[in-house]
Amino acid sequence: MTNRQSPAIVLQVTAHAEADKIVTLYCRDLGKITTIAKGAKRSKKRFVNKLEPFTSLVVTCRPPKKGSLFFLSEAELVNAHLFLRRHYPGYVTATFISELVRRFSGDQDGDPAVFSLLSWALAGLAERKNQGVIAVFFLLRLLAACGYQPQLTGCAVCGAAIDQQPAFALYPANGSLLCLRCRRQSRGSSLHLTRQTLKFLASGQQLPLSRLTRLHMSTANAYQALRALCSYSRHILQQDIHSWKQLQRLMQETEHPSQPAATIRRPE
Ligand SMILES: [Zn+2]
């Protein structure tokens, strides 16, 4: 098997045996792959400071003869994103983003759009842009890239546009929007979204990535959007997004700095 080379971002690193590391990468050309870096824990040159979560690399790796574990031969550092290791809100958001990519991506199912999205989010976090806004738009665009774009232009039943009603509800079971009147006639749990939040989300679906970090969404709107999108994502994945709890706590504390997060109650 010939070596493959690709730009890559480290999603997860775990120790393996005495000296090795198991490194999950999202490669631009190969998608999500799991690699073994032999001797990485002892490496003084080859892998030092490179195999850390969120690091951007150019990797050289050898596909397996059988199974799915690639052999990581070399890694060239592009950007260590050191800021994320010193800035707690940035770190929590990057962890959330990284978990979403791991859960939504199949093995070796490369999508350059997902790689660009991941690079955009890490660069935005490193520039100390609003973490909540980056998390919202990242998840929204990841859902679209994976074929699960929620329908956010208006009510799926009566067709009322988002400009015509003050609030709507998103149904996690199918990612569709219902106006509050149609919601009263339907069953199942749904999550409230104001017109303002929906307008941000509509912009997030349409604008190029380079313009998204310039949008100013309040923490309250970003939190409302993330709750709805995470609920929809959990329904698609049929599993929990573990790092959402940590990000949720952080956003609650940002919105209400004087209150302990555990005491905050909010209406549906
Ligand atoms: Zn309706």
Shape: elongated
Weakly predicted, low-confidence segments: 260-268
Can you identify the CATH class of the largest domain? Mainly Alpha
Major pleated sheet? 5 strands, mixed, barrel
What is the residue-mean pLDDT, rounded to a whole number?
Answer: 89
Q: Please give the order of strands in the largest beta sheet.
A: 1-2-3-5-4
Structural class: alpha+beta
Tally the helices: 9
CATH architecture of the largest domain: Up-down Bundle
**What is the N-to-C succession of helices and strands?**
EEEEEHHHHEEHEHHHH
Defining key terms:
268 residues, OB fold (Dihydrolipoamide Acetyltransferase, E2P), de novo design (two linked rop proteins), 2 domains, five-stranded mixed beta barrel, three-stranded antiparallel beta sheet, binds zinc ion
Short description:
This protein has helices spanning 83-86, 88-104, 112-126, 131-145, 180-184, 195-206, 209-212, 219-237, 244-255; strands at residues 4-16, 20-27, 31-37, 56-62, 69-79, 167-171, 176-179, 191-194. With 268 residues, it is of the alpha+beta class. The chain has two domains: 4-86, Nucleic acid-binding proteins (OB fold (Dihydrolipoamide Acetyltransferase, E2P), Beta Barrel); 129-263, Up-down Bundle (de novo design (two linked rop proteins)), CATH 1.20.1440.
